[in-house]
């Protein structure tokens, strides 16, 4: 049985722990590897390595840092098929979804290669007589990232490339459920030229998370995952004076107006609700059908019924397995609860027949109509292929419904009316808006701007905002005197008149 290694000071090392967890293929239950729960000494060694490397890495010319990420994006592209196959084996996504996972992370790597034009300060000349004021965007030190199981390539690539490009060093804790593709990406990062100690990796569960939150040498923590864990991380790490950003749970909504392009809207809903088996915080698990759009439910159900459920590597697969047996049981319990709660089950995805994968963690596309607040299937994040349909009479009623939900990661509207779209984008309170775009995750030129209960911390995990998160703004006010200046007392109060 292969074991997943730690990365400390540029070396892949075998953990000395006595606690291990199996990495399991969710489609077959095959054990792929064992991952260690790192010891306190190993975590300390990783942070110490990062702290020592920071002394020299922070002084590395910005062009040298950028060239590493130019090389890194090339290596990711060259190894895309291998990375996708590994991700599918341990996480369950279809190969197409796996490549998408990697590609969205690759976009951030490409953005990191542009660090020379991103990490720039400002200058104001002659703010007073002979006085200039300017700012520097300097790295802050050792940073850490805690990443989830559902995007084991994209989320790590959101984190460590931008932090390291800014001149920081990094300690990464991948999900213990599917760390293998993350570690392969780390190998490629070292091949690209990241020096020893600049990037370190530890594995583990709650104890390792708490150690990261508590360690005095870690200056910033980035987290993506559940609301429960994210809230814990935010408060615990903040109490030790760290910068913290936590992207957490969601309950995203789409509005479908009756003037929408029906075929486009229905196909987009299927992909957004059921793609990646619904295991993404930017999925669309709730759709508000306005007016006559409610007549489209039978067509939506038939389209969903035709989706192919199988192992992620099978050609033509639309929906792969959930990450674990526990996740499957949880989703099935939500479905049972939805029926008991009074929602109408339009399509039941429980216990699908999947030839060749009888032991897999499969739940097929499931659709409820007549869903209302107060039902568990609406109030809680299911994280599975379950779509809740809500009826509304008007656009105003639909917007008010969405704004009544505490989460605010993203939302979308399907319409051919520019006026309706503009009203929607102005009045809806979610942080990321799609107009005929079902999953409006922005490209890295912009920042991920989830809001409400979906986010803790002011700054997003990539784009312009993350430069501010990973740097300290230092403001310098300077006056220089030439040799002919008349000597005399210096007025320590600079007049701006």
UniProtKB/TrEMBL annotation:
Its EC number is 1.2.1.27. It comes from the Bacteria. Residues 12-476 form the Aldehyde dehydrogenase domain. The keyword Metal-binding does not apply. GO terms for molecular function: methylmalonate-semialdehyde dehydrogenase (acylating, NAD) activity. CDD domains: ALDH_F6_MMSDH. InterPro entries: Ald_DH/histidinol_DH, Ald_DH_C, Ald_DH_N, Aldehyde_DH_dom, MeMal-semiAld_DH. GO terms for biological process: L-valine catabolic process; thymine catabolic process. It is an enzyme of class 1 (oxidoreductase). The keyword Repeat does not apply. Keywords: NAD, Oxidoreductase. PANTHER family: MALONATE-SEMIALDEHYDE DEHYDROGENASE, METHYLMALONATE-SEMIALDEHYDE DEHYDROGENASE [ACYLATING], MITOCHONDRIAL. Belongs to the aldehyde dehydrogenase family. This is methylmalonate-semialdehyde dehydrogenase (CoA acylating). It comes from Pseudoduganella namucuonensis.
């Amino acid at each position: 049985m292969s074991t997943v290694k730690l990365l400390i000071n540029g070396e892949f090392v075998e953990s000395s722990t006595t606690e291990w967890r199996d990495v399991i293929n969710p489609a077959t239950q095959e054990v792929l590897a064992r991952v260690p729960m790192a010891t306190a000494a190993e975590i300390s060694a990783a942070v110490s390595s990062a702290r020592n490397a920071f002394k020299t890495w922070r002084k590395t010319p910005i062009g040298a840092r950028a060239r590493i990420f130019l090389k890194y994006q090339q290596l990711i592209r060259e190894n895309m098929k291998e990375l996708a196959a590994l991700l599918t084996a341990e996480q369950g996504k279809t190969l197409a979804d796996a490549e998408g996972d990697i590609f969205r992370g690759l976009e951030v790597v490409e953005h990191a290669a542009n660090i020379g034009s991103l990490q720039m300060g400002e200058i104001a000349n002659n703010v007073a007589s002979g006085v200039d004021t300017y700012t520097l965007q300097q790295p802050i030190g050792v940073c850490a990232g805690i990443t989830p199981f559902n995007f084991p390539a994209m989320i790590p690539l959101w984190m460590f490339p931008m932090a390291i490009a800014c001149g920081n060093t990094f300690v990464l804790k991948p999900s213990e459920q599917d760390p293998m593709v993350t570690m392969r990406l780390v190998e490629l990062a070292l091949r690209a030229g990241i020096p020893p100690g600049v990037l370190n990796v530890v594995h583990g569960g709650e104890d390792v998370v708490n150690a990261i939150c508590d360690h005095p040498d870690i200056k910033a923590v980035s987290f993506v995952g559940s609301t429960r864990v994210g809230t814990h991380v935010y408060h615990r790490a903040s109490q030790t004076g760290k910068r913290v950003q936590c992207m957490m749970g969601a309950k995203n909504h789409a509005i479908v107006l009756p003037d929408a392009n029906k075929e486009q809207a229905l196909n987009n809903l299927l992909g957004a609700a059921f793609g990646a088996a619904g295991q993404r915080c930017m999925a669309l698990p709730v759709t508000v059908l306005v007016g006559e759009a409610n007549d489209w439910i039978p067509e939506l159900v038939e389209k969903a019924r035709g989706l192919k459920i199988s192992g992620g590597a099978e050609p033509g697969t639309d929906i792969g397995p959930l990450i674990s047996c526990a996740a499957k049981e949880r989703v099935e319990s939500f479905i049972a609860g939805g029926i008991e709660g009074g929602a109408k089950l339009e399509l039941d995805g429980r216990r699908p027949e999947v030839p060749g994968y009888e032991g897999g963690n499969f739940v097929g596309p499931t659709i409820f109509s007549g869903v209302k607040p107060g039902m568990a299937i609406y109030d809680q994040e299911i994280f599975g292929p379950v779509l809740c349909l809500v009826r509304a009479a008007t656009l105003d009623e639909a917007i008010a419904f969405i704004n009544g939900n505490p989460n605010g990661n993203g939302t979308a509207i399907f319409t051919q009316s520019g006026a309706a779209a503009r009203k929607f984008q102005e009045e809806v309170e979610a942080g990321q808006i799609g107009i005929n775009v079902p999953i409006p995750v922005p490209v890295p030129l912009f920042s991920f701007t989830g809001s409400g209960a979906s986010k803790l911390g002011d700054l997003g995990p990539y784009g312009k905002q993350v430069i501010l998160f990973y740097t300290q703004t230092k403001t310098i006010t300077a006056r220089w005197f030439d040799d002919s200046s008349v000597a005399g007392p210096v007025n320590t109060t600079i007049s701006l008149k």
